[in-house]
Write a structure and sequence with these properties.
This protein is α/β, with parallel strands linked by helices. The protein contains 10 helices and 8 strands. 41% of the residues lie in helices and 13% in strands.
Length: 285
């Protein structure tokens, strides 16, 4: 996408690691960036990147955000892992309703391009995948092991179905595409970013079943050339924001130990017979 006329890009969920890095990359290409999120990034925004507080579940806020935008990167989502997976209502509202709001607002406000951040989970449900690509069929919705994957699949299908929709201002049509980035595995990120994953079928599938995808078509048809990266920069980013395992102070450790001992004693005492109740029973006999 050329940026010779200083295109303006909207990034939903732009305050997170991926969204902010995308914004900085686009900025280097001469674009203007609007980050749309519920809270601002913790780092200072460089000139050319602005922040707009908002929620994809609120259609009025979405319409305001997309007005005057040349391209939307829809990254915002919810429920990928950990405790978030339990909140089915919020997962549905953000991933499905939020995406519907983005699509409808783009058509209403004449935004010609939309890039949707999907997930490989839309085709993966625990089966072995070796060298997969976009020709793989969607996993049937009823076979998805978690609500996040199911809603992301519904949202991606809606995005792809919207491709070619006429814009209401008569300026052309909406062009859409979906990207399915691989997700970082919990056992790599856990020591760095201290969230609490649930041991669900999805977590087991991701870490225990072979599934990888080919970039051959991207290289051949789009001229894509992957660059090598490592996790050092990711580690530093999360650590600079206070994530990671923090040492427990001696006082806090002592308090925890006292609590554990007290809880153990209480459990033991709960199994001992009560003298008074025994004497009453004996007297009644």
């Amino acid at each position: 996408m050329g940026t010779s006329r200083a295109d303006t890009y909207l990034i939903t969920g732009g305050s997170g690691y991926f969204g902010y890095r995308l914004a900085c990359s686009l900025l280097q290409r001469g674009a203007k960036i609007l980050l749309f999120d519920m809270s601002p990034p913790s780092q200072e925004l460089p000139e050319g990147i602005t922040f707009l507080k908002g929620d994809v579940r609120d259609y009025v806020q979405v319409v305001e955000a997309v007005t005057g935008i040349d391209c939307v990167f829809h990254i915002a989502s919810y429920g990928m892992s950990g405790r978030e997976q339990l909140n089915r209502r919020l997962i549905e509202d953000v991933n499905v309703q939020g995406t519907e709001h983005i699509l409808r607002a783009c058509v209403e406000r004449g935004v010609p391009r939309l890039v949707y951040t999907s997930t490989f989970n839309v085709v993966f449900g625990g089966q072995v995948i070796e060298g997969g690509d976009e020709t793989l069929p969607y996993l049937p919705l009823h076979l998805h092991p978690d609500h996040y994957s199911r809603t992301k699949s519904i949202a991606e299908m809606a995005v792809m179905a919207a491709n070619g929709t006429a814009l209401e201002d008569g300026s052309g049509v909406l062009r859409t595409c979906a990207l399915r980035p691989a997700e970082m595995i919990h056992h790599l990120i856990g020591p760095i970013y201290n969230f609490q994953p649930l041991l669900t079928r999805t977590e087991v599938y991701k870490t225990g079943v072979t599934h990888y995808f080919s970039m051959a078509k991207a290289k051949a048809e789009l001229g894509y050339e992957p660059r090598e990266f490592n996790l050092d920069e990711v580690v530093q980013w999360f650590r600079s924001r206070g994530h990671g395992k923090k040492p427990i102070s001696p006082l806090k450790r002592l308090m925890v130990d006292i609590f554990l001992v007290a809880a153990f004693v209480a459990v033991v005492l709960s199994y001992l017979p009560v003298v008074g109740s025994l004497s009453v029973v004996s007297g009644s006999q």
